[in-house]
Structures are given as structure tokens and as C-alpha cells.
Write a structure and sequence with these properties.
The complex is a heterodimer. Helices cover about 5% and strands about 35% of the residues of chain A. By secondary structure, chain A is mainly β. The two termini of chain B are about 30 Å apart. Classes of the chains: A mainly beta, B mainly alpha.
């Protein structure tokens, strides 16, 4: 499959998705179309965190699928896939920095330093641009799955698998950064969905997800949620439940509500459930997992005794197994006006699907009331012949309104700008 | 410690610098000689606690050498060996070692009762759905078939106690429900797999 066909298919599918979702209220009366048969309940003793839970027995096609682990080494700068990527007319993509193995969450400091977290490595990296040169500095190491980063007023917050720490005045001297000090460690240690995305809200609180500890398990009350704490680690409060595994969220600059991506369960079928884009309108809302997925699909195992109408439905379905991760609202002014306050979501791409889906950046345009109006694939081409040549993880916007995008497959960060290409002058 | 093992290790120690600090003209085979002094030059280790490397997929080897270099998997000798490796060294060593022949199927049929218990555990815990029905691994998933028994048992114990952090967390999860007695049976079975 060539990249442009992939892109077109994605757009088509995104359309189907919007259609599917609009039909959701109707589903309340009619049985959901594609609810597949439940996996046999007789499966022996798999640990709750096993990615194999729920996998149909004796199915050769399903048996071929397993989570795809990113390579440990970053790709060489001249091997990066930028030339194969498709962007809308007028947009340019260039390599911002390469050689950052498993580059994941992105945050930008007040002085322009770009911080990069990682899931498989043990370091936090700072990308520094000076006199036309790019340098990747390790500013913290020996950490355990330091995937999540947040930044506010000179302080960098780092979320490891089971603790959150901070480095004050982090940009003052990037060659001699203080060791992180732990501010919050009341977190479970599960590996499954244990790596974290974090962010600081307009309320100046730090938001921390605790994923469901496995593909399809009844989470204990400590899991399957988004919490928030004060920046000193005090005052923990659960603000959303029924969250299976969110690895990206941001606040709508207009209504200040929290929007988050959530990844649906695996092994139910190739096409459902779809992943979700959700919004929190009141503290403590329940978003369905593990009882109900995509707003209208009761889980064959845990859905008994529940109705999907008990839970807050998603505002958009983001594709089957597409793994929507990092998302941000666009508040800059460099991109054309239609992107103002739209959501850019990085879809990491599926593993639990015979024909992979996702591996792109999709934009959601909103109505005045904060609901989703339409969507459009923004960058595609990471998926070629059912193989990844890169996998997008997080997006972040620079002061000048251009976009940074991390790719954990190649260990690189790209910059996307609109208007005359600026790369040539470098 | 038996004398042969000691002598092999001493020889390896002398050669250590050779592996970790390449002379310009050295081939990868020459640089890997000290590795194989410990790990066995036909893919099979004859030394307790040192794993056989034969038949391991290159992506798995690359990941482990990377984890050693970054001290994310802490084993003094291997951290030392890989300390000054460049990314290309990691790739070259993985590709070279991946060509070593896999350990031959065991000639020891094992006690039928323990073999039956081990085999049942493999099925119950779906070990073979990742490691393959032949337990030969693929991509980032290691070959375990005919690995040394004491090494297998230790690896499983270390995953369970989270003292060996895997690249991703799947083995930490997979070993959670497994008891010490079951670890012994699993290692017994996998080492004698045929």
C-alpha cells in the first residue's frame, strides 16, 4: 500500500467514524451493530496485566499479533522518513533533532528548551539550539520509564512509572541540572499502562493518569482514572474514572475543559472498539471502561448489569486500535485560521489489527459548544505496506506557532511549519 | 567454582579490553572472541549462570546490549563490556551473535512428571504465544528453548521480583502469578525442550 492511499483511506475512515458516532444516540435503542461474541471465559490463569488477555483461542490470524516494540537505537539523521510524509499544501516538515532513542512526551520551557521524555529509556533529554547548532543534553538519568513531562514557571515535572518528581529552575544551567526531587509517589507499580502522560491545567494543578492495569480487567478503585494534585504533591483528587489508558490530554482554551484521548481494549475484534476522544465536564465523571467502550459498545465480559447510558460517551471515535496518544489545542497564529483552537492528536498506530491503522496526526475541529464538528488527517505516511516507518507520539507547539512532533520509532523530533520553508537557509 | 570455568573466565578477562576497545583493523569475529570465551563459541554456554547466545534474534540481542550499556539491565560484567560501545558496535555485535547456531535439542528426556508439569505451565500461561510454539523467539522476544536451566530460573525470578527490568514490562506481568516451584518446573522443561 503506498502512503497516499493510506492517507486517503484514513480520511475516509475518519469520515466513517464521525458518521458512526453521530449515530450513537440511536444505538441506545437498537443493539450495537458489530458487537462480537465474547471470548471464552475458560482461559486459565493469565495475569491481569498480560497483553494476551481476551485474545481468541486457536485463531491463527490473531496469534500473529503482538505489541510492536520500538527499536532501542535512534535512526541516523539521514534515515528519517520526513520525505515520505504527507502534509496539507503549504506545510513543511523538517528534522528538529535526531538521535533521541524512543522520544516520547514533549514540553517546551520558557527559554525555548525542548524537553523529551522516553518510555523504554531511562533519561530525560533537553534539545538546545544555539548558533545554528542542535545539541541533545541528558538532564536526568537512571529514571524508570520517564515518559511524562510537564512544565510551569521554570520547573520541569517528570512522571516515571510510579512517581512524579520536579526540577526547579531547570533552564538556568542545562549543563548542571539538579537531581529531580520526588513530589508524589502514591502510585501503583503496574507495568501494564503504567507509563504516564502528565500535564498542568489552567487550575495550576498537575494531572496524572493511572491506567487500568491490563487489557481487559476490573480495575481496583486506585486505577482506571485521572487524578490531579497540587504542584507540591498535596491534595490528590480523582477527576475522571472509567479511563482505560490515556496517554494524552490538554485543555480547551475556550471553555477550559479537559479533553483526553483514551485507548480502547484489545482482542474484541479488528474494528471495534474504537479509541476515544473524551471531555470532562464535571469532576468525577465515569467514561465507561471496563463496562462500556466507544459510548455504545458494552464489554462482552464486564458489560453485564450495566447500560452504556450510565457513562459519559466520547465526543469522537478516533479509530480502531489507532492508539491516539499526545494531543494539544492549537492556540498559535502561524497555521491558517481554520486550525485555531482545533485539536491535534497523534495516533501512534495499531498493533492489535491485521491491517494496521493510524500512524498519523489527525485534527479535530470543534463547534462553539466544544463538541466535535469534523476531523481531517493532517500528517500521514508513517505506515507503508502495513509496516511503520515511524510512529508519532506527542505534539507540542512552539512560541512561533510551529509544531513539534515526536517519533519514538526513529528517536526523532520533527518541526512542522506553515509558509515559506525555512530549512533551506540553514 | 570448577577449574575449567575459572580458566575460561580468566582468559576472557585478559581479552576484555580487546572486545571493548577495538583496534582499528580488528574484525567483529576477533572482537567477539572474548564474548564467546564466556558464552560458548558454538552458541552453547558451558558455564553455569552464563546464558547461551545461539539462535537469539538480532533485535532481542540489540535491545539487551543496549540495556547493558545504559545500565538499565544491571550485570557488572556486561555493563563493563558494553560501556564504551557505540551504536554501531551494538548493531554489529548483535548481528554477528545472531548468526551463532541455536543450542541443539536436549538429549535428556527429563523426568516425565516434571516435563509434563512444565509443559502444562507453558500452555496455561501462554508463554508459547509470544516465544513461539518452538520457544525459539522472534524479533524482540528471546529464544528460550534449550537455554541453561539455572539461568532460565534466575531470569524468571528476577523478572518476578522486578530486579531485571525488561525493555517493556511484559515479563514482569507474565511472572506475577507464577510460584517459585513453578519457576523450577518451567526452567527444567524449557532447558530440556525438544
Amino acid at each position: 500500500m503506498n502512503p497516499s492511499i493510506t492517507a486517503r483511506r484514513s480520511i475516509l475512515l475518519a469520515g466513517t467514524i464521525a458518521g458512526l458516532f453521530m449515530a450513537a444516540p440511536v444505538f441506545a435503542q437498537t443493539p450495537p451493530a458489530a458487537a462480537p461474541a465474547a471470548a471464552p471465559a475458560a482461559a486459565p490463569a493469565l495475569p491481569p496485566g498480560s497483553p494476551l488477555i481476551g485474545r481468541p483461542e486457536g485463531n491463527a490470524d490473531a496469534a500473529k499479533l503482538a505489541p510492536v516494540a520500538a527499536p532501542p537505537l535512534a535512526a541516523a539523521a539521514d534515515k528519517l522518513p520526513t520525505a515520505a510524509l504527507k502534509l496539507p499544501p503549504g506545510f513543511n516538515i523538517e528534522v528538529y533533532s535526531s538521535g533521541i532513542p524512543n522520544a516520547r512526551s514533549l514540553r517546551i520551557g520558557d527559554k525555548g528548551t525542548v524537553f523529551v521524555g522516553t518510555r523504554f529509556g531511562n533519561k530525560v533529554t533537553a534539545i538546545v539550539k544555539k548558533d545554528g547548532k542542535t545539541e541533545n543534553k541528558t538532564i536526568a538519568e537512571g529514571l524508570y520509564r520517564p515518559n511524562g513531562l510537564a512544565y510551569r514557571n521554570g520547573t520541569l515535572y517528570i512522571a516515571e512509572l510510579s512517581q512524579v518528581s520536579k526540577i526547579e529552575n531547570v533552564e538556568d544551567n542545562l549543563d548542571k541540572v539538579n537531581k529531580p526531587t520526588v513530589i508524589y509517589s502514591d502510585l501503583p507499580k503496574d507495568e501494564a499502562h503504567g507509563w504516564k502522560f502528565i500535564a498542568i491545567g489552567p487550575d495550576n494543578k498537575l494531572y496524572i493518569p493511572v491506567g487500568q492495569p491490563g487489557n481487559n480487567v476490573m480495575p481496583p478503585p486506585t486505577h482506571g482514572q485521572i487524578r490531579r494534585i497540587n504542584l507540591d504533591g498535596t491534595g490528590m483528587e480523582v477527576i475522571a474514572r472509567g479511563v482505560r489508558n490515556t496517554v494524552g490530554f490538554d485543555w480547551n482554551p475556550v471553555n477550559k475543559q479537559l479533553y483526553f484521548s483514551d485507548n480502547g481494549r484489545d482482542w474484541m475484534s479488528e474494528d471495534v472498539p474504537q479509541d476515544e476522544l473524551n471531555r470532562v465536564t464535571k469532576v468525577g465523571e465515569h467514561f465507561g471502561s471496563p463496562y462500556c467502550y466507544q459510548g455504545n459498545l458494552p464489554d462482552p465480559e464486564f458489560g453485564w448489569g450495566h447500560k452504556c447510558s450510565e457513562f459519559t460517551p466520547p465526543i469522537a471515535l478516533t479509530g480502531p486500535h489507532s492508539a491516539g496518544l499526545g494531543l494539544r489545542f492549537y492556540t498559535g497564529s502561524q497555521f491558517p485560521a481554520k486550525y485555531k483552537n482545533a485539536i491535534f492528536l497523534a495516533r501512534h498506530g495499531s498493533w492489535n489489527r491485521t491491517n494496521k491503522f493510524g500512524g498519523d496526526i489527525i485534527v479535530y475541529f470543534l463547534n462553539k459548544d466544544g463538541s466535535v464538528k469534523s476531523s481531517e488527517v493532517f500528517i500521514s505516511g508513517f505506515l507503508v505496506d502495513n509496516k511503520y516507518i515511524g510512529r508519532p507520539v506527542d505534539v507540542e507547539f512552539m512560541k512561533d506557532g510551529s509544531m513539534l512532533l515526536s517519533d519514538d520509532w526513529n528517536g526523532a523530533v520533527y518541526r512542522i511549519s506553515y509558509g515559506k520553508a525555512r530549512t533551506a537557509s540553514r | 567454582m570448577s577449574t575449567p570455568r575459572f580458566m575460561r573466565l580468566a582468559a576472557a578477562a585478559v581479552l576484555l579490553c580487546a572486545a571493548s576497545q577495538p583496534l582499528l583493523a580488528e574484525t567483529i569475529a576477533e572482537r567477539a572472541a572474548p564474548c564467546l570465551a564466556c558464552h560458548g563459541d558454538k552458541g552453547v554456554s558451558e558455564t553455569p549462570d552464563i546464558p547461551s547466545l545461539g539462535g537469539q534474534p538480532a533485535p532481542y540481542l540489540l535491545i539487551q546490549l543496549y540495556l547493558f550499556r545504559e545500565k538499565q539491565r544491571t550485570v557488572d560484567i556486561m555493563n563493563e563490556m558494553t560501556k564504551s560501545f557505540t551504536d554501531d558496535d551494538l548493531r554489529n555485535f548483535s548481528d554477528f551473535i545472531a548468526k551463532l547456531p541455536a543450542p541443539p535439542p536436549s538429549t535428556d528426556a527429563g523426568e516425565p512428571e516434571r516435563m509434563a508439569r512444565g509443559g502444562a505451565l507453558i500452555t496455561a500461561h501462554r508463554c508459547n504465544s509470544c516465544h513461539g510454539l518452538d520457544l525459539a523467539g522472534r524479533e524482540n522476544i528471546p529464544r528460550v528453548a534449550n537455554q541453561r536451566e539455572e539461568y532460565l530460573a534466575r531470569a524468571l525470578r528476577e523478572y518476578k521480583s522486578n530486579t531485571r527490568h525488561g525493555y517493556d514490562g511484559v515479563m514482569a506481568e507474565a511472572t506475577q502469578p507464577i510460584t517459585e516451584a513453578q519457576i523450577a518446573d518451567l526452567a527444567y522443561y524449557i532447558a530440556r525442550f525438544r
